[in-house]
Amino acid sequence: MKKLLLSLVTVILITTSVFADEIKFTASAPNVVELGEQFRLTYSLNSKGKNIQIPELDGFRVLMGPSTSSSMSTQIINGKVTSSSSYSYTYVLLAEEEGKFEIKPAAITVDGEKKTSNSLTIEVVKVDKTRQDTGSKQSQNSASSQKITEDNLFVKVKLDRNNVYMGEHVVATIKVYTRLTIAGFGDSKFPSFDGFLSQEVPTPGQISLERENINGTIYNTGIIRKLILFPQHTGEITIDPFELEVIIRQRQANKRSGFFDDFFDNYQDIRVPRKSKPIKIKVKDFPSNKPASFDGAVGNFTLSTTIDKDSVKANDAITMRVKVEGNGNLKLIKPLEFNFPADFEVYDPKTSQNLKSSEAGMSGSTTFEYLIIPRHAGEYEIPSVDFSFFDPKAKIFRTRSTKKFTVKVAKGDGDNSGTIISSFTKEKVKFLGKDIRYIKTNDFTPQLKGEVFFGTTNFYLAYIIPFFLFVLAFVFNRKRIKENADTAKLKNKRANRVAMKRLKMASASLKAKQKDQFYDEILKAIWGYTSDKLNLPLENLNKENISEILLSKGVELELKDEFLSILDTCEFARYSPSAGSSEMDELYQTSMDTITKLEKNIK
What is the three-class DSSP state of 207? Predict the structure, then answer.
C-alpha cells in the first residue's frame, strides 16, 4: 500500500512539473533569404497542442508542411524530478517576391486554451546574377577552392551612432562577415577604446552565425563582442582597428582522381588574418547653460532620498540613503554633497551599484549611504540638495532635488552638556561637560643617576651601530636599484612567480565553473611566462615561431609539444561546447607541470 501511494505521489509530481511550466509557442526563420530560395519556418511548443493555424504568408509559397516532431526528457537531480517536452511544426517556404515581409503570429490550442506565437520579419533580397553564376561554376568544379577575398570575409566594428554628447552611450558591436565556411578562430586583438569608459554587454559564449543583408549581398554574420562606450572628452575620437585570425575550411583540390574520391572529400584549414577599418566618433560638448549642480551625469534619472529615523538620542547613528535610478552613465555619478549641521559627525558615503548593460545602455541604480552621528541635543535640519543631469534625447538639463529632513536629537546617556557650541572643532569638544582636568596628586620623588652617560662605551656604540646599519642599508639599496634597472633580468627572475599567480586565478575560475575566464587565465599564464622568461614582447610571440625559440633555448622536443598542445586546447575550448570539469582539471595540472619543466630547462 505504501509503495502504491508513493508511486501515485511521484506520478502527480511529474505531471504537475510538466504542466506548471509556462506555455511557450515561438516562431523562427532566417532573417534574410534570396529571391527563389527555399527555407524553413518552424514553430516550437513546450506542450502538446492541436489545430495549429498559420497566418497568410504574403510573398511566400508553402511547398511542404507541417512536418511535426516531438521529444521528451526527464531528469532527477538531488531527488528533484524535472520533466520537459517539446513539439515542432516545420513548413518549407519559397520566397517569391522581393522586399520585407511580416509573418503575423500563428495560433494553436493547448488544453482548450488558444496560444499565439511571436511575429517575424523576413527580408527577401534579389540575387546578384554575376555572383550567382560565379558561385554555380565554383560548385560545379569540385576540385577547385573558392578564392578568399575581402568581399567574402571581413570583420567590422559597428556603431549604433557616430555623433553623440560627452557621456552619452554608444553601442559598439564587433562582428565577422563571411560567405565561406568558418572552422574556428585564432588570435585576436581588440581595440583599446582610448577616450571611452567601456562596459561589456553579455553575449553567448559560443558564436552563432545569422544571415544579414549587406548592400544586396547575404552574409553569415557572428557577434564576437558587444560593448557600451561612454566618451570621456569632446572632439573627434578614433577607435583602433580590430584584428582577428579566422580559420577557413576549404575543399582541397586532388591532383589524382581515385576510386574513393567520389565518396570522401579532402579539406584543409586556412588561417586568414582580417583587420577592420578605424572608426571616428564626433563627441559634442554640453550646452552652455549648465546648472551649478551639474557634475557630468548624462541620461535620464530619478532621485529618491530616505532616512531611517528622524528622532534619536545624541551619539546615536542615523543612516541617510540617496538613490539615483534610470538609464545613463550611472557608473560615473559622484556622491551628492550635503550641507550637514556642524554638530553632526558625517562619514564618507558608501556607494553601492546595481547595474545592467544592454543594447539600450546602462540601466539600474547607484545608491549613496551616509552615516550621520549627531553629538548634541537639539532640533536640526538637513537641507535639500539639487542633482542635475543632461538628457541627450531632449538635449536639455534636468534637475531633481532631495527631500529636506528635520531631525530631533534628545539628550543622550552621559551627555552633561545641554548647550550647543558649534564654533569648537571635534578635538575641542571632547572635554565639554568637564570643568578641569585634575592634576595628579600622588607623591613624586626624583632619583639621581649614579654615573654620567657621556663618554661611556654605550655612548660611542649609540653612534657607531647606527652608522654601520646605515652603510649596510645603503649598499643593499644600491644593489636592489641595480637589479631593478636590469628589466630583462628582473622579468626572468619573477616569471615563474607571476605565472603561478595566474594559475591560482585560473584555479579560482575553475572552482567557480567560469569556463571562459579559466581558459583566458591559462593562456595568459603560458604566454606571459614565455614572454618574461625569454625577454620577448608578447606581440612577437606566436605559435609559428615559438617552436624555434624554445628549441634554440635547449628545450626538449617533447616539452615543446606539450606547450603547443596547451595553447591549442585553450583556443579550441573557447569556441567549442562546454568541456567537463575533469578535462579542465587535467589541463590545469598539465599547465603547472609544463611551466615547472620550462623553469628547469630555460636559464
Answer: coil
